[in-house]
Design goal:
The protein has 201 residues and is an alpha/beta fold. The protein has a single domain, classed as Rossmann fold (3-Layer(aba) Sandwich). Helices cover 54% and strands 14% of the residues. It is built from eight helices and five strands, in the order βαβααβααβααβα. The protein has a five-stranded parallel β-sheet, sandwiched between helices. α1 packs parallel to α8. The longest helix is centred in the middle third of the chain and has 25 residues. It is globular and about 45 Å long. The structure holds thymidine-5'-phosphate (TMP). Thymidine-5'-phosphate binds next to α4.
């Protein structure tokens, strides 16, 4: 596959969305086509599934299957065609979020997630994953002062602690792909780090 697949990850409240415009601008200045997308979502069907996933309570297996249903559509309709035409794809979340939220925080057994991953994406993995990391309390504080929380944002400290530790474990397990960004710093400093990483890719 010729293109470049970049994913952005982090707990809710880690601030990743703030830096997306900078990332897209820098990448576009290189002259290649850049496709900006997100999960769950990224297609009309995926966006409908997102509404259910973010607002309806459901069993963790149902949630995982719906995440991967949205992901299958996203891969087939958006991500794979873009990579095949040599574009750079930037996805606000991908499968690492499923490992962090559904396995780490909600307890789905890893082997079930691995089966879904293998089925839906085969050997495809992001080339680079930027993990925006903040302490749990920071994330919770930021969310408390933000808009009405969705189902995931409304969870408590223990959920967020499991989430963070699973994200950091994945970063440690796949060090060649992950760039962990300390996002608990002034926004300008985080922006500078993000710029350095993007320029280095
Ligand atoms: P966000 O787009 O604001 O980050 O919200 C998406 C939410 O969905 C976020 O709370 C993380 C959650 N999520 C999962 O639980 N599993 C997944 O596989 C993905 C992609 C997202």
């Amino acid at each position: 596959m010729a293109g470049l697949f970049i994913t952005l990850e982090g707990m809710d409240g880690a601030g990743k969305s703030t830096h997306i415009p900078t990332i897209l601008q820098l990448l576009a200045s290189g002259g290649r086509e850049v496709v900006s997308t997100r999960e769950p979502g990224g297609t009309p069907l995926g966006e409908e599934l997102r509404e259910l996933l973010l607002h309806r309570e459901m069993h963790v297996e149902t949630e995982s299957l719906l995440m991967f249903a949205a992901r299958a559509e996203h891969l087939q309709q958006v991500i794979l065609p873009a990579l095949q035409r040599d574009a750079i794809v930037v996805s606000d979340r991908f499968t690492d979020a499923s490992y962090a939220y559904q396995c780490g925080a909600r307890g789905l057994p890893m082997h079930k997630m691995q089966q879904l991953e293998q089925w839906v994406q085969g050997e495809l993995q992001p080339d680079v994953t930027l993990l925006f990391d903040v302490p749990v309390e920071v994330s919770l504080q930021r969310l408390a002062s933000a808009r009405t929380p969705d189902k995931f944002e409304a969870q408590g400290a223990e959920f967020f602690a499991r989430l963070r530790s699973q994200y950091l474990k994945r970063a440690a397990d796949y060090p060649q792909r992950f760039r962990v960004i300390d996002a608990h710093r002034p926004i300008e400093e985080v922006k500078k780090t993000v710029e350095e990483i993007i320029l280095s890719i």
